[in-house]
Amino acid sequence: MNYQAHKHEIHITATILVAVIVLWLGWVIFVPTSAMETSQHLHVGSGQSLTSISALLKEQGLVRSSIVFRFYVSALGRERNLKAGDYTIPAGSTLNDIAFQIAGGNGSSTDISVFIPEGSNIWEIDKRLADAQLAAEGQFASAYGSREGYLFPDTYLFKPGSLLGEIEQKMELNGQDKTQELIGGLSVPARDRILVIASIIEKEARTEPDMLLVSGVIANRLKRKMPLEIDATVSYGACLRQFSAKPTLDCQVNLVAVGAEIHVDSPYNTYTRAGLPPHPISNPGLTSINAALNPKGDYLYYLSTRDGSQTIFEKTAAEHEADRQKYLGL
Q1: Residue 245's domain spans which residues?
Q2: Residue 181's pLDDT band (boundaries 50, 70, 90)?
Q3: Percentages of the chain per state (helix, strand, coil), in multiples of 5
Q4: Which of 52, 84, 104, 125 could be stapled to 46 by a disulfide with Cβ–Cβ 3.0 to 4.6 Å?
């Protein structure tokens, strides 16, 4: 009898203990701390661990227990979703709210998002950075024009006040990582050559099938030692010359009067000089790089219709002239 009574007392004690723990966890997780009576600022550094973030939250009084925060985030399966950035945590936020904000990617980060489209050249990148107030107009192009072709097109998050060198390095390292499988094993000269060809393809074709055929035209003409006669390289050379004279210039290659520029000799004038231009004329994406590596077709000429909806490919000069009259009226 005494044994049964003792066993009953243990059961009651255990039940009360469990209830107390549950109530305490509910209080820790779902009741805001006194610090959360007002909104709070929190900085989460890049690569900062869950343990470190938990300790920081406890130190700032934003949660009552760093251990509970750590286990709660892990239980939610969000320990790999931690987002670096500067967060404004609203007044009244609980541990649960903070967990979802930081580990759920729903935070109010002050990072500046900049989208760099495939085929953007240095002036187009410069303008996007200037529009995002990360640099003065012409500043990035002046400093890093020599890295044309290596600034990988992507969506980037930059800290306000980022140094130009940090921005350039982030783009270039991203490019090395993203292109590793395609060109990482090539020698430096071979890689540079592919990037030059891919940069031209970006400006001359829109679809992947056309990119492969334009790549084929470039390869076939180079093999026959024919001048490439590509307008995009001429336009780029004109912009480069104009920008060198006036570094704040927002040069738009699509507005260059190519008809006049083809008579101005430069390393980028593929009408007057054989071979490829000395450097890329844009920053290519993976599709154009793959096309540069895999030229297709036996064409030697191509042209774009006036509305840009079609690229017409030809094998002979006679076919090309006939298409110029048919599609362009020239």
Answers
A1: 122-299
A2: very high
A3: 55, 10, 40
A4: 84
For residue 311, the SS3 value is: strand
User: 34 with 83: CB under 8 angstroms?
Assistant: no
String of DSSP letters for 177-221 = HHTHHHHTTS-HHHHHHHHHHHHHHHHH-SSHHHHHHHHHHHHHH
Query: Inter-axis angle of helices 208-223 and 188-204, to 10 degrees?
Result: 120
Of the candidates 35, 26, 25, the residue with the CA atom closest to the CA atom of residue 92: 35
Is the same domain home to 141 and 87?
no
- Alpha carbons 101 and 75: distance in angstroms, whole number: 15
CATH code of the domain in which 37 resides: 3.30.1490.480
Instruction: Count CB atoms within 10 A of the CB of residue 118.
Output: 17
Query: What phi, psi does 138 have (nearest 5°)?
Result: 85, -15
Q: How many domains does the chain have?
A: 2
Q: Of 88, 18, 30, 111, which Cα lies nearest the Cα of 63?
A: 30
Q: Within the chain, what is the greatest distance between any pair of CA atoms?
A: 111
Residue whose entry in the numeric block shows the structure tokens 């973030």: 53
